[in-house]
# Entry
Amino acid sequence: MFNVYIVDDDPYMCQCLKQEIPWEKIKCNEPSVFNHGMEVLDALELCEPNIMICDLKMPGMDGTELCRLVRERYPNVEVIFFSAYEDFQSAQMALRYGVRDYILKPICEESIAKLEAIIKKIVSEKAKVRWWDQTFDSELAVRHNQALNECNREYFECFFEDMSQHKNDGLKLIHHFCLYLMHILLDFVHKEKKLNEYTLLKVNEQKHLQLLLEMKNAEECISFVKNCYEEILDLLPENTEKKVLIDQVHELVAEYYMIPDFGVAWIADKVHLAPAYLSRVYGKYSPISLIEYITEYRIKKACELLRTTFLPISQISAHVGYRNINYFSKLFRTHKGKTPSEYRNAYHSGIRNDR
# Structure
């Protein structure tokens, strides 16, 4: 939310603006209202303004002097002047002090609508800059290197998903930050002793940066950098070890799926890991859970037996690891949309029809 100051020596004017504009809806806190410039200077220590709406002509301290003093402390504050005169002098003042715009008095429905539109535009622009400034801070390289060292895919998934939300903030801006992200990654590759010479040869720095600079689409730029990070994550030793583990799990499923007590705990015992950790690691490399993989594998084997043999359903159920035929039939129907008998009949009926 953004902080707004309203400064005018006319209390009615201040209250009108405070009440007529839907501040929360346009992502602003309820405005702080002041009737004199000195009050504003006292309040600066308590609340930094993002937007200041003030009268150009006020007794004691006019709007231009107030604008100058406020910007000495907060140079990025956006200022909107109110003026009772549509003249060259007012336009000159606005230009000289770099104000966003000025609104003519007396206040009316049209001028309030104009003011609201100006504030919306300011908020939209500042929200973009705020995200980039907060994300691409001095610690970004540290966070990325830590995530790479930990092979933290979830961190990068979230990071690039957030970045994609800002793909319309301008191609030049996207290019700038994507290049910075590539430099972080390439620095990591050159320093990382765990990566072998093949990896270093594969990551051709000049080629990658040139490809990125030639891209004319922000979404393409973000996707390209994300893929580069994923390639390096795949080559890190920890990921290689985990892929070996996944292959081992699949081999165990293929060999022992018919055992009734076979499951995650059984596999975890064989690979000397805690069941919860095994499930978590497996989930990172598969679109389905380990339990779902075991179930789908058993159903696949049951389908093969239904198509190629005339064994009773009870024997097929037992053969794929299910003691309870009713549970097996229910599970089969959930996955295939048919009972085992219906599946077998439909298959053989199709063969006869083909003849």
User: Anything to note?
Assistant: The two ends are 71 Å apart (CA to CA). The chain is about 65% helix and 5% strand. The chain has three domains: 4-127, 136-235, 240-354. The mean pLDDT is 83.
